[in-house]
Amino acid sequence: MRKSHPIRRVVLAGAATVSGIVLLLSLKPATDPGSAQAAGVGAPPAASAQGGAQAASGTVTGDAAQTQYGAVQVRLTVANGKITKAEAVQAPKGGQSDQITANAVPKLNQAVVTAQSANVDAVSGATYTSNGYKKSVQSAIDKANASAGSQGSGGSAQAATVTGDAVQTQYGAVQVRVTVAGGKITKAEAVQAPKGGQSDQVTANAVPKLNQAAVATGTADIDAVSGATYTSNGYKESLQSALDKAKASAGSSQDSGSQGEGGAAQARTVTGNVSQTQYGAVQVRVTVAGGKITKAEAVQAPKGGQSDQVTANAVPKLNQAAVATGTADIDAVSGATYTSNGYKESLQSALDQAGG
Q1: What pLDDT band is residue 273 in, cutting at 50, 70 and 90?
Q2: From CA 77, how far away is CA 87, in angstroms rounded?
Q3: CA 328, CA 348: separation in Å to the nearest integer?
Q4: Tens digit of pLDDT for each residue in 115-151?
Q5: Torsion angles phi and psi, residue 129, rounded to 5
Q6: Angle at Cα 291 formed by Cα 287 and Cα 292, nearest 5°?
Q7: Whole-angstrom Cα distance, residue 201 to residue 63?
Q8: According to the model, what pLDDT value does residue 228 have?
Q9: For 91, 116, 150, 186, which has the most beta carbons within 10 A of its beta carbon?
Q10: Residue pLDDT, tens place only, 80-115
Q11: β-bridge partners, 74
Q12: What is the reported pTM?
């Protein structure tokens, strides 16, 4: 038998090696995870909880949610788009409510941080408190998302969803949520409206018309629906507070990126949450410029009977104190303790929204 020449064997071995490498390369998946991710194709999206906060940082106070046993209001701390802390700044109290609140609130706080959304289970034996808590958390998340959404780059207007304050009417609460993009209302919806009995029919007729009018006009200056005056007025008031919040969020992002020329900080107006007191609702609106309160006013305050006199005396002093101190840490006015406490609570929520 003829012996193979050594050089021939080397050549044949080399050819076999090359053929093997070519075969392996042809079997390699076309969508290799490492190469696809590097190319930006098929890369997994950044993790985010459904209904959770977008990339924003700071403290946000949700709207006060009224329940059968008292108001519930939640404050969230958000860092890099994640909820790092949840706390109830208002919760039902007095009698058996103290025990229920002490048991339920810590569990709800922990659940929200774990879930990164308002989609958490109600605590057994605390259904009303749990539902109010979740509602307030969702409004806080809406505010955080609105603030994050207004910080878009490349000139493209991102949509932001903002929930207005709940407005109490003679027939029930009205609360409006709007989606704003490019400074225009693209969607309006009532997340609360009067219900039960004849109110169901009135709401079913009025709310779609009000939603449509809000989108058409782009403002809260819309006509009341015939036969639904109270609902219409509540709707417009809540819509205005939502627009105030959206404007404040947009203004704060513009301020942070436009202080190079002239250095002048733009003023923005923010409406705080409605604070319920024993004698009526208190709600504060502030104008903030350069991190300072330049104007404070009460858009709601107790009225009727002796409350008229108390309000007339207390509110101007509280307004003045808010501007002077620049914070909600102001003294209560003598003889107007409930109004003062409600004022300070609403003022603090306005400052939270303004980033102060």
Answers
A1: confident
A2: 9
A3: 5
A4: 998 889 999 999 999 999 999 998 888 877 766 655 5
A5: -60, -40
A6: 55
A7: 27
A8: 94
A9: 91
A10: 778 999 999 899 999 999 999 999 999 999 999 999
A11: 88
A12: 0.40
* pLDDT > 90: percent of the chain: 39
Which is nearest to 276 in space by CA: 1, 112, 70?
70
Q: β-pairing, 172-181 with 184-192?
A: antiparallel
CB atoms within 10 A of CB 319: 20
C-alpha to C-alpha distances, 104 to 98, 128, 129, 132, nearest whole angstrom = 10, 11, 8, 12
DSSP code at position 41: S
Would you give the distance in Å from CA 320 to the centre of its chain? 29
**What value does the CA radius of gyration of the chain take, rounded to a whole number of Å?**
28
For 182-246, the DSSP string reads TTEEEEEEEEE---STHHHHHHHHHHHHHHHHHHHHSSS--PPPTT-HHHHHHHHHHHHHHHHHH
At 328 the three-state DSSP class reads coil
Sequence-separated (6 or more) residues with CB below 8 Å from residue 203 = 190, 193, 194, 195, 228, 231
Token pair listed for 224: 């009341």
- The stretches of 62-171 forming alpha helices (DSSP H) are 96-115, 127-149
- Crossing angle of helices 127-149 and 96-115, in 10° steps, is 40
Would the pLDDT of 261 be above 90?
A: no
Query: What is the per-residue burial (b if ≥16 Cβ within 10 Å, else e) of 54-80?
Result: bebebbbbbbbbbbebbbbbbbbebee
CA–CA distance, 5 with 110 (Å, rounded to integer): 78
Q: What is the dihedral of CA 144, 289, 331, 350, to 10 degrees?
A: -20
- What is the C-alpha to C-alpha distance for residues 186 and 125, in angstroms, rounded to an integer? 40
CA atoms within 13 A on the CB side of 309: 4
